[in-house]
Structures are given as C-alpha cells and as structure tokens.
Specification:
single chain; alpha+beta; 3 domains; five-stranded antiparallel β-sheet; four-stranded antiparallel β-sheet; 7 helices; 9 strands
Length: 251
C-alpha cells in the first residue's frame, strides 16, 4: 500500500478521524501512522477541522447506577478471593481493599484519563500543524457515510474536501447548495468530481446568510438551468458555525 500521495493520505486520514475506517483497515492504518509524519500531520489537520463540531454537545455525567455497578463488581472481586489467597496476602502485608479496588480511585482515574485524552488531542491537533480554524464547517453524508467536508476558511472562500468520491459522472455536474432557514436553496457553485475544490466569490457571506445546511445535487453540465436543484440529491450536512476567537486583550 503506497501512502506517498497527498490526496490519498488526506482521504484515509479523513476516514480515520470520522470513524468510517473499520476493522483490519483501521489496524493497518494505525501501523502506518506510527512512522509516517506526513500521515500524522493529515490526521492532526482533520482532527482540528472536525473536533469543533462536537463542542456544542453538552457533557453528560454518568448516572449513579454506573458507579454502583463498578462498586458492586470490585466488592464481588474481593469476595471471590480464596481463603488461601487471603492467608498468603495477610502474611505478606496488612489486609486492605487496595487502591485498584477502590471506587474513589476509579472515579478519579476516569476523570483524569478523560482530561489527559483531551490534552493529548490538543497537543496532536495544535502542536503538529496548528491549522487555522474555519468560520464554519459541515460534513456532508449519504446513507450514514461521510462523503465530503465543506468549510469556510474566510469570508469569500468555500473549500470542499472529498472524503469518498463518487464514480465519474461524465454527463453531469455536481452542484453545491446552501439551504437557508427560510427560502429557497442558493447555489454555491460546481465542484470537482474527483478532487478538492476552492470556490471564491465576492458576497459569499450574503449567500450563506441563515444557512443551516449544505447539499450536493447532480445537475446538467454547467449547473442547474433554473437556479434551483433539479437533479438527484447526493449528500447533505448540517452547518456548524464556529465562534470567532478574539485577539489577546480584546473584550
């Protein structure tokens, strides 16, 4: 498997971060990832792009019954020890519950491990590449599979990164639309079928006003003749608008 092609690296990294890469393919990718710096950079970039989508999801504390089950299991583990083991342990050291059988330990360890994982993600995402956060982003899916990622790096630019391209469609064009909260879809433009696309347009902010989702449709060559989608809907994704970070010292 040759992983020296930038576009292939990007697609595989996207699959990996999105979770659509499964089983043996994911295990092999993990092996390649250990020694491939370019691949590590691609994964870091996709993590930086996609993890903000989860920032709007409020954290959910585990219910009390989860901790009760953990406590019950640790107690049962102690009760299953044989009398001989207990005698042997008592000869070596004073009897105690042991830190690994303590409910308090597992509570604190769970919280600490979560914080550590979050910290490692920040180091991976920011320490390797430090990519600039887009103004908005959306993962467009079809049948539960991520097909492409749309981002707005700055006011007048939209970028489209293919994750799972379609088979070549020689007699059709793929047209990207923004779906506003009210009113009809607005055209963003025609995208490449087999690669990434950059669409630069003055007034892009106006076109994206009140946009809630992006959609991709199959249209006649050159785009829809009516200014509205006329062909098959290929994929769709909700827009996540990212907060603009203020400069240091700015209130």
């Amino acid at each position: 498997m040759k992983l020296n092609h930038p576009e292939l690296q990007s697609r595989l990294a996207a699959d990996y971060v999105l979770g659509t890469m499964k089983g043996g393919a994911r295990r092999r990718f993990n092996e390649y990832l250990k020694d491939n710096r370019a691949l590590q950079n691609e994964v870091a970039k996709w993590e930086a792009h996609l993890t903000p989508l989860t920032s709007a999801i409020p954290p959910i504390a585990p219910p009390d019954r989860v901790w009760a089950v953990i406590e019950a299991r640790t107690i049962n583990r102690q009760s299953l020890a044989t009398a001989g083991n207990l005698k042997q342990n008592s000869a070596k050291a004073p009897a105690n519950k042991g830190v690994f059988n303590s409910l308090t330990f597992w509570r604190n360890w769970g919280l600490g491990a979560s914080a550590l994982a979050a910290g490692l993600l920040v180091v991976t995402s920011l320490g390797v590449m430090q990519p600039k956060e887009p103004m908005l982003t959306a993962v467009l899916e079809s049948d539960g599979m991520a097909r492409m990622v749309v981002e707005q790096p700055h006011a007048n630019l939209i970028t489209v990164r293919m994750v799972k391209p379609w088979q070549p469609i020689n007699d059709k064009s793929l047209q990207l639309w923004v779906l506003p909260k009210h009113g009809k879809p607005r055209s963003i433009g025609i995208i490449n079928q087999d690669g990434n696309t950059r669409i630069k347009m003055v007034g892009m902010e106006t076109i994206l006003t009140d946009g809630t989702a992006f959609a991709l449709s199959k249209e006649p060559i050159g785009g829809s003749p009516t200014g509205q989608p006329t062909g098959m809907l290929l994929c769709k994704g909700v827009i996540a608008k990212l907060p603009v970070k203020k400069a240091a010292g700015q209130i």
